[in-house]
Design brief:
This protein is of the alpha+beta class. Helices cover 46% and strands 18% of the residues. The chain has a six-stranded mixed beta sheet with strand order 1-4-11-6-9-12, covered by helices on one side. Strands 2-3 form a two-stranded antiparallel ribbon. Strands 5-10 form a two-stranded antiparallel ribbon.
Length: 305
């Protein structure tokens, strides 16, 4: 079981989990948000399936098409390749704790070309109309799902001999219960055009890879071969922010990492993160983080000593 202090996003907007065991095809992590350098989970997606149990606190999860409130005792299932985040403008994460299990479907199916995968995974993984599902302890049908999550997490945490088999078994039971719960929705769902989301992911990846360079809205739009107007619409309708707001937020996120872990000066960090001038960096950083870069460095370096 891993305790995390931040959610790290790679150049493809995928979440990277520090310390993930190679070859296990799953990871259990406990998020103490008081330890996070930034009190947020930035926009990201991943191929793995995710189930998150709210140990304490109340959250607002953001998805491109909506926001959802989750509370202590709830369990949230997030489908493969679904954009999501927990953003500071919607949340006060002080004292909040969340247990998360992410797993590759092949852990349970035995392989992507297996009959089990075709019958029990592909129908839901390919169902874009079910990006997530909240399971509440007040719902009788949710009890078994939540119980199996807790047993899987506990088995990994205790790490007794053979615990991997126990985790796999509990996740199999959890997945089967989720499928039974969602089967009517899967049957009724119709494929819809999610080209807008694919273009958005493409542009977000472009920003991830080129944030240190001078970028314009035109550059971002061109990376997905769309117009500036369509680019702005994609960001606004899915993330409720402009392309340049997303760029500045991502640059600030990278600056936060450098302020905490590196020895570069504020001016050097400003240049490394693509800000045009030091004064613009300080102004933008203050607007997003509520303090100056030096104040942020001093506060967070002291907190992790």
């Amino acid at each position: 079981m891993i305790t995390t202090k931040e959610v790290i996003i790679d150049n493809n907007q995928n979440e990277k989990l520090d310390g993930q065991n190679e070859g296990l095809l799953y990871v259990c992590q406990r998020n103490y948000f008081d330890l996070f350098y930034e009190k947020k989970v930035p926009w990201h997606w991943h191929n793995e399936l995710e189930v998150a149990y709210i140990t304490s606190g109340d959250y607002v999860y953001s998805f491109p098409e909506c926001k959802i409130n989750v509370h202590r005792g709830d369990l949230l299932f997030i489908n493969s390749n679904v954009l999501h985040g927990i953003l500071p403008e919607n949340n006060d994460l002080t004292g909040c704790v969340m247990d998360v299990i992410r797993f590759d479907p092949s852990l349970l199916s035995g392989g992507y070309n297996s009959s089990i995968s075709s019958k029990y995974f592909i129908p839901l993984l390919g169902c874009t109309s079910i990006p997530f599902r909240r399971f509440s302890p007040e719902e009788k049908s949710s009890a078994e799902i939540i119980y199996n999550f807790q047993m899987a997490f506990r088995a990994d945490e205790e790490a007794k001999y053979g615990f991997e088999f126990d985790v796999q078994y509990r996740l199999s039971q959890l997945w089967l219960s989720i499928l039974k719960e969602l089967e009517p929705l899967i049957e009724r769902s119709k494929p819809h055009n999610d080209a807008s989301l694919e273009r958005l992911k493409q542009m977000m990846s472009f920003i991830q890879e080129n944030y240190a360079e001078k970028l314009t809205v035109e550059d971002i739009a061109q990376s997905a071969s769309i117009s500036v107007r369509e680019c702005s619409r994609c960001f606004s309708s899915n993330l409720s922010q402009s392309p340049m707001d997303y760029l500045n937020n991502f640059r600030t996120q990278k600056a936060c990492e450098m302020l905490i872990s590196g020895s570069k000066s504020v001016l050097e960090i400003s240049e490394s993160c693509g800000f045009s001038t030091g004064s613009y960096f300080s102004k933008s950083f203050g607007k997003i983080m509520g303090c100056t870069p030096l104040e942020y460095r001093k506060k967070n370096r002291k907190s992790i000593v």
